[in-house]
Design goal:
It comes from Paraphaeosphaeria sporulosa. One of its GO terms (molecular function) is oxidoreductase activity. InterPro entries: DIOX_N, IPNS-like_FE2OG_OXY, IPNS-like_sf, Iron_ascorbate_oxido_reductase, Oxoglu/Fe-dep_dioxygenase_dom. Belongs to the iron/ascorbate-dependent oxidoreductase family. The protein is an alpha+beta fold. It has one domain: B-lactam Antibiotic, Isopenicillin N Synthase, Chain (Jelly Rolls), CATH 2.60.120.330. Helices cover about 25% and strands about 20% of the residues. It has helices at about 15, 25-40, 50-65, 70-75, 135-160, 245-250, 295-305, 310-320; strands at about 10, 40-45, 85, 105-110, 175-185, 195-200, 205-210, 215-220, 225-230, 235-240, 260, 270-280. The protein has an eight-stranded mixed beta sheet. The chain has a four-stranded antiparallel beta sheet with strand order 6-11-8-9, with no helix packed on it. β8 (about 215-220) and β9 form a beta hairpin. The radius of gyration is 19 Å and the shape is globular. About 40% of the residues are buried.
Length: about 325
């Protein structure tokens, strides 16, 4: 079979969320376990997030990114202690990449009124748009994908033989970040530039919505040594595991490289990723005796400390918690 013909597993989560027959939940747990062990990725339907929420979110993203450039820059995440807000195209460059990502992005997370732990928790930045055009649909969508991320975590834990109660040890106040993204048309990017260059995700569960029929995501398969395209299909989410899950599971679950190339010459592409990590000071809940006591926050700093201009205070506070 040619690599281009390989498809990631498509798993119907309704058997877990709303089981109708004996064994439905166990079947879904096994399917997710096998997909994450082999690919680190799977596609899913029956996830419980309505099309109205998805369409409302995509409309809001489109409205946001069509604001004047200077208005978007005034919302820069670099001016926010909790790193919420707007990231301009060209601001993200990974070690080894020749060119920065062409995407632009906007970040939100938990809506905490008080800044805590040097910015891990804090308030969001909201653009000056009517609430019904942005804040309300975006927040409703965030809550829905927050819930779906928690469900995926439950399934992954049970796939390794752990009870759901393990969630209580690392997700009392989890960091759940959402990244809204617009990729420019292929014709507007530089030769050799990616929308997002090849990378693995940092932490826990990623819940990805792709704008229907706007393809671009590709996943690396080690055994085939090639990139596999993942089509953007309406009402189908893409789920993947990050590096922290791979570390915590002792490699039972995989964290796979992926990248985005907007295939459309003259059209932009929208997507949205929600990342459910865990509490900032949580350590590996699957192995309490693990001699490496790195916290979620420490792993985040290790991954992004050189990429972003994190304050020394931010780093000291999180490192001191070990």
């Amino acid at each position: 079979m040619a690599v281009q013909e390989i498809q990631l597993p498509l798993i119907d989560l309704s058997g877990y969320i709303d089981p109708k027959s004996p064994g439905d939940r166990e079947r879904v747990i096994a399917e997710v376990r096998d997909a994450c062990a082999k690919f680190g990725f799977f596609q899913t339907k029956g996830h419980g997030i309505s099309l109205d929420l998805q369409k409302g979110l995509l409309n809001s993203i489109d409205t946001l990114f069509n604001l004047p450039k200077e208005e978007k820059r005034s919302l820069s995440f670099l001016q926010n202690v909790s790193r919420r807000g707007y990231e301009e195209s060209g601001m993200s460059l990974r070690d080894g990449d020749k060119l920065p990502d062409s995407k632009e992005a906007f970040y939100i997370g938990r809506e905490d009124p008080v800044v805590e732990h040097a910015g891990f928790y804090g308030p969001n930045v909201w653009p000056p748009l009517p609430e019904d055009q942005f804040r309300t649909p975006v927040w409703n969508y965030y809550q829905a994908t927050h819930n779906l991320g928690s469900i995926i975590w439950e399934i992954l834990l049970q796939g390794l033989g752990h009870p759901i109660s393990v969630m209580e040890s690392f997700a009392k106040k989890p960091m759940v970040m959402m990244k809204m993204i617009r990729y420019p048309p292929l014709a507007a990017t530089l030769p050799g530039q990616f929308g997002v260059g090849a990378h693995t995700d940092f932490g826990g569960v990623t819940v990805l919505l792709q704008q229907p029929d706007k393809h671009g995501l590709e996943v690396w398969l080690d055994d085939k040594e090639d990139w596999v395209p993942v089509k953007a299909v309406e009402d189908v989410y893409v789920i993947n595991c990050g590096d922290m899950i791979m570390k915590w599971s002792g490699g039972a679950y995989k964290s796979a490289k992926h990248r985005v190339i907007n295939k459309a010459d003259n059209e932009s592409r929208l997507s949205c990723a929600t990342f459910f990590h865990g509490d900032v000071f949580a350590t590996n809940p699957l192995n309490p005796d693990d001699p490496v006591k790195e916290t979620v926050g420490q792993l985040l700093i290790k991954r992004f400390g050189n990429q972003f201009s994190l304050s020394d205070e931010w780093k000291r506070e999180v490192k001191a918690a070990a």
